[in-house]
Design goal:
Blueprint: E1 3-9, H1 15-24, E2 28-31, H2 32-39, H3 47-54, H4 67-76, H5 78-100, E3 107-111, H6 119-124, E4 127-132, H7 135-143, H8 150-159, H9 163-168, E5 172-175, H10 181-195
Parallel strand pairs: 1-3, 1-4, 2-3, 4-5
Helix pairs in contact: 2-5, 4-5, 7-8
Length: about 200
């Protein structure tokens, strides 16, 4: 049975870069954000339930989730996030599990931005790797993407788990602060080598 690793980190932490580094070492990456985008795309499997929950305004003209509309609602109404997650999280979990069962790699990495907020993910993996950096660094990296304001970035960061909460569920932490890609790759390599040992996969209860 493959070793299952949960990879998480706040927006702007460098989690996606680390996922690519793990993939180059032979890990199979299951990206739950990518699954969510498929589920909420035009004719996505989650859209009928989301329309029932939030009304037709949730859909863009092409039938996909109107992400800007949803983001604004979630920021204005904390209960909207709970209702959104109640629809999406079970579907994402089922899709991720189905994909994992087809994998032939010795290592499966579940890339889960909200792992710390979702205790069931901790039970599904044998190891958790957290990519960490300071709040200010997160903001600066997100703003450099070009389509984000500092205020929008800060609001998204505030809506995610606190750094301490993510670190509390970690088996290993990479502090990606003031680090170039070579140093980050070396840190990933050290963890990869350390974890290349037989591991008993946890069983979902």
């Amino acid at each position: 049975m493959p070793l299952r690793i949960g990879l998480t980190g706040g927006i702007g932490s460098g989690k996606s870069t680390v996922a690519a580094m793990l993939a180059r070492r032979g890990a199979w990456i299951i990206d739950t954000d990518a699954i969510a985008r498929r589920l909420t795309g035009a004719n996505g499997a989650a859209m009928p339930a989301l329309r029932l929950t939030f009304g037709d305004a949730i859909a863009a003209p092409d039938g996909a989730l109107d992400r800007e509309w949803m983001r604004a609602l979630v920021f204005a109404d904390p209960d909207a996030r709970r209702r959104l997650e109640a629809v999406l999280h079970p579907l994402i979990g089922a899709e991720a599990q189905a994909e994992a069962e087809t994998v032939t790699s010795d290592v499966v990495v579940f890339d889960v931005p909200l792992l710390a907020e979702s205790p069931h993910w901790r039970r599904r993996v044998a190891r958790v790797l957290v990519i960490d950096c300071t709040h200010e660094t997160q903001v600066e990296r997100v703003v450099r993407r070009g389509s984000w304001t500092r205020d929008a970035a800060a609001r998204v960061i505030a809506s995610q788990a606190a750094r301490a909460a993510r670190r509390a569920v970690a088996d290993a932490v990479i502090f990606n602060e003031g680090t170039d890609l070579d140093a980050l790759d070396a840190a990933v390599d050290a963890i990869w080598r350390h974890w290349q040992v037989p591991a008993q996969d946890p069983v979902e209860q």
